[in-house]
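Below is how a single chain appears once it has passed through the pipeline. First comes the sequence as given, then the structure the pipeline wrote out for it. We keep one example in the README because the format questions we get most often are answered faster by looking than by reading.
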Amino acid sequence: MFGFFIRFVGMVLGAALALGTMVSMQLPLLHEASTFTASLGAVPATSTSTIAWPRVGSAALVIPSLGVQRTWHDTVVPIASLTKLMTAYVVLQKLPLSIGESGPCITMTSADVQYYDTIKAEGQSSAAVADGEVLCEATLLDGMLVHSANNFASILAEMTSGSTSDFVTQMNLAARALGLTHTHYADPAGYDARSVSTALEQGHLASILMQSSLVRAIVDQSSVTLPVAGTLGSFTPFVGVDNVVGVKSGRTDAAGGCDVMAMDFVLNGRTQLAYAVVLGARGGDLLGPAGDEALALEQSVLTSQQLLDLPTGTVVGTLGWGTRRSNLVLAAPLTLEWFSALHSANASLSVATEHAAVAPGQVVGWLSVDEGTVHRVAVTVARRVSPASLLERLR
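Resulting structure:
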C-alpha cells in the first residue's frame, strides 16, 4: 500500500512538473504578437537620373573603384590616336620609368627629320625634330601623349623593340594579356584605320595605364615644351578644367573624334577617377564634339552624387502592442554616398515579431538600403516597451 502511495505521489509530481514546464513555455505566447510600422521619411527615395550618352558613335563609362562598366553601342571601330595608350603601356613595360628620370636616349638623324616632314605634309599630328637632336624616353612620352606626335610614337617603338613591326606585335600580345579581346593594333600611332578597339576596352586600358604616377603626371599637362618643337598644346579637351586629368584624344576621317577622359571625384572621403570614352564623334574638328560628349557623359553621372547620413537614434518606425509603443531607432549610424544616375536607393525595414518586453539595445530588426550594394544597420527601440500583463488584460 505504501509503495502504491509513493508511485501515486511520483506520478502527480511528474504531471505537475510537466504541466509547469508547458505553461512556462507557452506563457510568453499568451501575449499577442507585437506589430510595427515603418516610417522611412529619413531615407528619401531617389529616382535614377539620365546618363548623357552621345548622339552618335559609341561610348563607355568606367569607374574601377566602384566596379562600374556601362556601355552604349559598344562596337569595334578605329580608335585613331587612342592607340598611343597601348604604345605608352608597352614602352613602360619594356623601359620602366619614374617621375624625374629621363630614361634611355636616342639621337635624331636626317631620316627622322624626313619622316617628320612627310607626316606633317599628310596632316598627321607631329612634333619637329632636328638632325643630331637627342631625345630621351621621358621627353618622347611627353610629346606623344600630350601633343599626340605620331613621329614620337614611331621613335619610341624603334627605341623599344628595334623595329615598328616588332613593336606592333608586342602591342597585340599585350592586348591579349590584358584581356582586350576586341582590340587590334596595326601601327603605334593609330593613323592606320586597322588599329581598332571598343570604348569599354579603351576605358579599361586607360584605367590600367593611369595607375602609373608618371603617366598621370604627363597626361595632366595642358602643354609640353620640347627641345626643337618648342611649347605645344595638348589635344585632349578640357585638361586642367572641371577636374579633368587627361587622358588621350584622337581623330581621323575613319575614326571620327575619339576621347578618353579621366575626371577626379571624391566619394566617401577618397579621391577617385572616372573614365568616359567616346568613339566616332562627328562634326566640327571632331575633337571638340568628342570632348564635349565625354564631358557631358562624366558630368551626368558625377553631378548625380547623393549623400545619406543617418545618425544613431534616427527614427525609422514604431513597435509595440496597441497603444504601448516605442520608436524604432537605428542602433548605429549609416552613411552612404552614391550616384543616382547609376543606382536608385531603395530602403526597407524588417522587424521580428516579439511576444515579450523589449529593451533598448536589443536588436529587433534591420534597416536595409540598396543603392547597388545592400547596406544593413541594426534597429532597436528607443525605450522599453512591453505587452499588457494578463491581469491588465483581464480588467
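The CA atoms of residues 27 and 355 lie 9 Å apart.

See the next section for the split statistics.
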